[in-house]
Specification:
Largest sheet: none
Shape: rod-shaped
Oligomer: single chain
Distance between the termini: 77 Å
Number of helices: 2
Low-confidence stretches: none
Structural class: mainly alpha
Mean pLDDT: 81
Helix content: over 70%
Radius of gyration: 40 Å
Number of strands: 0
Length: about 140
């Protein structure tokens, strides 16, 4: 139903021309609507792909950070026992100018080396336990 205020073509020739123009406008609108839907789908997929790439990049960065933290943990396992024994004995050793009643540096070595070996053993056991858990998870062993 058309509005009575809407302009109308007078005569068959003009009516055909206006109906042809209206049909071209409808066709153009349909084409633009189809192109708009295709662009929407394309950009939606592109945004999803970009988000996946960002997630992958963040995962790689997290893996690298975890590797660095593992190296730092290993260094802490090495230096903590040595730091403890050096702070415990202090500089009161005969070789460093202490009295004859002070301990020798060999005593520090005899305490530090086994303590360091125990720390390395605990670290190795922890890694082996994680490896066994990984094998159970992957292989079901």
């Amino acid at each position: 139903m058309q509005s009575p205020l809407w302009p109308r073509a007078v005569g068959d020739k003009l009516r055909q021309k206006t109906e042809g123009s209206a049909q071209h406008l409808k066709d153009d609108y349909s084409y633009l609507l189809t192109m708009n839907k295709q662009l929407y789908e394309l950009y939606t997929e592109a945004v999803g792909t970009l988000m996946n790439e960002i997630v992958i990049a963040e995962s790689r960065e997290a893996i690298m950070q975890t590797t660095r933290m593992g190296k730092l943990t290993f260094l802490a396992f090495l230096f903590l026992p040595l730091s403890f024994t050096t702070s415990f004995f202090g500089a009161n050793l005969q070789e460093l100018g202490g009295d004859k009643d002070t301990l020798s540096i060999w005593v520090w070595s005899l305490v530090s080396v086994p303590l360091l070996l125990c720390a390395i053993l605990f670290y190795t056991l922890d890694i082996l336990q994680k490896w066994r858990g990984f094998k159970v998870y992957v292989y079901g062993i």
